[in-house]
Amino acid sequence: MNFLLQKNFLHKLIISSPRIDHRIPGLLNQSNMAAENIILFDYGWNDEIKKKALLPLEKMVDDEFKGKNFFDKKEYISIYTICYNMCTQRSPFNWSEQLYQKHGEQISAFLISCVVPKLQNQRDEFLLQQLVKSGDNHKIMNKWYRLFFAYLDRYYVKYHALPSLEDAGLAHFKTLVYEQVKTEACAAVISLIDKEREGNTVDRGLIKSCIKIFEDMGMGSLSAYTTDFEAQLLESTKTYYAIKSLVWIHEDSTPDYLIKAEKVIESERQRVAACLNNDSEGKLLKVIDDEVLEKRATELLEKDGSGCRVLLANDKFEDLSRLYKLFSRVPNCLSPVADMLRLHILELGDELISQKQARVDSKDDKDFNDDPQFVKDLLHLHDKFIDLVTAQFAGNSLFQKALKDAFVEIVNRDMGKSRIADILSTFCDRILKTGSVEKFSDEEIEMYLEKTVQIFSYITDKDMFSEIYRNQMAKRLLNQRSASEDMEKLMIGKLKLRCGAQFTGKMEGMLNDLIIGADHTKEFEDHCRDNNTAKGQLGRTEF
To answer: What is the CATH number of domain 227-313?
Structure first.
């Protein structure tokens, strides 16, 4: 009998026997190697793998693991060995392809017969609870399938670039279970979120578990979560807060509305951290910013009795801080707030100018520029709003510009008989010369000089101030009425810092001339004293 006949005979013998445990030497090849112990597919799958492992596993899953422990090591190793042997037999008895196919068919059959029926006719939270339970059970079953067929996963799947057993099992769950209930599940989760927004207590753990299912169905990405859940959540949130904000804007004052908006933003942020995917936070808060803040911004700022101008007028610093914090979240919402700040400062500045003009009209003398009260009120106004911009508006450039624009307009207004340059210079002269009614310490003088120079920086015609200040300074120095040479130098230094050396050159020259003159006088007095005994000298003359 030739080799071909021997091989055909062996093949018929194997087909007729479910399992060959005995050795038949020399029939499979021409070498002296021993024949293999061949496992036929039907026997290995039905009698070993399915009967001893998969059906018991399905029973455990279907019974929710009541009264049955998982497989012990001995049981697991036995099934793993069968799968290993079936995947390592030589062709045509290598059953890797068939096992991979059966793996998917068995999972699909179980999902259709046992899992899907339990989800049918379920609604709301009951649907979510059953879906979470089914998802958790499937993960356990999928894990054991992967362990049993680990060798298949390690070699056959990688060699043929097929989905891993875990991914394949998850894909079957997505197709047969998830796709059938995702719409109802999404609506149920959003319903729970809306209930919590209304102040009701809900099961956050259930929401989080459902969100995990949406994430897992993306198979390594967030595509399913984004498309099947997040898009619907954002649309629902938009509708919810559009209605809420409409009610609040009619019922609440601006501060109360802002408090509610602040609480809403924080609660949504906490909900995302506790239940949802972190990538949703920015998108969710953007929807809330649009509906609660941006679309209601004009109404909030102009609301009668509690709008932005009212908050500024009544020094509602906490409310202003909250207003800035919330409006800074929305592009272009801070500009109208800054404009309202500018108008408010202008209004207060006009009141000071009106009071100043009233005092001028009531005076009998002609010294319109000596009005320290006006300067102090102006300095106080400036200090107040510098602090406001720094503390309540975080030093934002929009508000710094609003402050600057307002004071530029105030200090350059036509004040009738008075000019702001005269008034500021006269105020400096008042605190820098001796004999003033008010007594100032060096610290107070330095403080007033610094604040006055800040106001001076807003004057457009700075040369006028320079001329007036220089004349008054000359009188102080020549009449020896300057209270402190150090304070004179300090003021010149402050002006020099803001306007440059050319602006203060003549003032510095005046001080230098006095210093040189003092040195010459001392030299002359020393000369006279040294020569006062000589005949004809002028040692006794007072110059």
So the answer is: 1.20.1310.10
